[in-house]
Amino acid sequence: MVKKILVLHTGGTIAMSEDENGAVAPGAENPLNQFKNPFGSEYELLIENIFNIPSPHMGPAEMLQLKKRIMDAYEKDQIDGVVITHGTDTLEETAYFLDLTVPLKIPIVLTGAMRSANEIGSDGLYNFKTAILTAASPEARGMGVLVVMNDEIHTARYVTKTHTTNVATFRTPTFGPIGLILRDEVRFFEKLLHHVSLPIDQVVDHVYLFKAYAGMDPELLEMAATSKTNGVVIEALGAGNLPPRVLSALEKLLALKIPVVLVSRSFNGIAQEVYAYPGGGVQLKQMGVTFCHGLNGQKARIKLLVGLSAGLSGKELATFVSEAIS
Ligand SMILES: NC(=O)C[C@H](N)C(=O)O
């Protein structure tokens, strides 16, 4: 049976080249257009250049456009899988957005490159090839959105970019990858236990992300306490604690019924209500802060944004946002 794979190119380093001074930028032609299908007639690739942007230019509106394109192709073209090529800087956010909003079992795989098309050791075409193999793999069905880079398969929910330039940049802290590519063979060794998706057809804005630090100043958080703000995520300290100086700003946000979501700024582990000192997790929980277990700040922000965009509020929103380990 022929595998029909929808390929959506969005830009990023994988679609860029280096000039004689070493500066990397998109050229007149996307180098991915040169890709010759190495799989023969077993694979039918439906290739579209949906955007050609570096991933710092990607936002929820473009993510929603990708989601709509996938749904449309699924209904009209009976696709078996999807590959999205993407800049690596915000790849994890687009991947998680799609994970939360596309209610399909077909494999959806994101990939990118750390070295542009004409650099020595360029990883783009190789990652693209392995992403296609994964998207065509029956074992990848029902695993949520996946990120394939450097011969590893990661879940959209937990993967994160950990290095500015190294090709082994994508990692899953605490848990590790769920599969590997071994010389053209796709092997999974973990299963996704639980997967939720919410139907949305618009995205809200003004969902902010803050990072806590020793002696954190309250002014920026206070500025977010306005009726325009839809939600706030804070990357808290350690197990989930904040400096007491910001507590009055938190009270102002919560009094305005603005959801405040807490994750840890630590690379491994999860935020939990452990400490009972002023600003500790126990107090934050009592104040009405929602603990999000296991996501990093940028993913918790995507989850909050998706929940709000689906019209969730109060307890329902808090439950949706907090349940990340399952
Ligand atoms: N490696 C990359 O793709 C990084 C690039 N700045 C991007 O995200 O578009």
TrEMBL record:
Alphabetically ordered keywords of this record: Hydrolase
Pfam entry (one): Asparaginase_C
Reactions catalysed according to its record: L-asparagine + H2O = L-aspartate + NH4(+)
Ranges where the Asparaginase/glutaminase C-terminal domain occurs: 206-318
Ranges of residues in domain L-asparaginase N-terminal: 4-191
Entry-linked SMART domains: Asparaginase (SM00870)
InterPro entries xrefs: AsnASE_II, Asp/glu_Ase-like_sf, Asparaginase/glutaminase-like, Asparaginase/glutaminase_AS1, Asparaginase/glutaminase_AS2, Asparaginase_C, L-asparaginase_C, L-asparaginase_N
EC number: 3.5.1.1
Residue positions of the active site: T13, T88
Family, per entry: Belongs to the asparaginase 1 family.
UniProt-recorded name of the protein: asparaginase
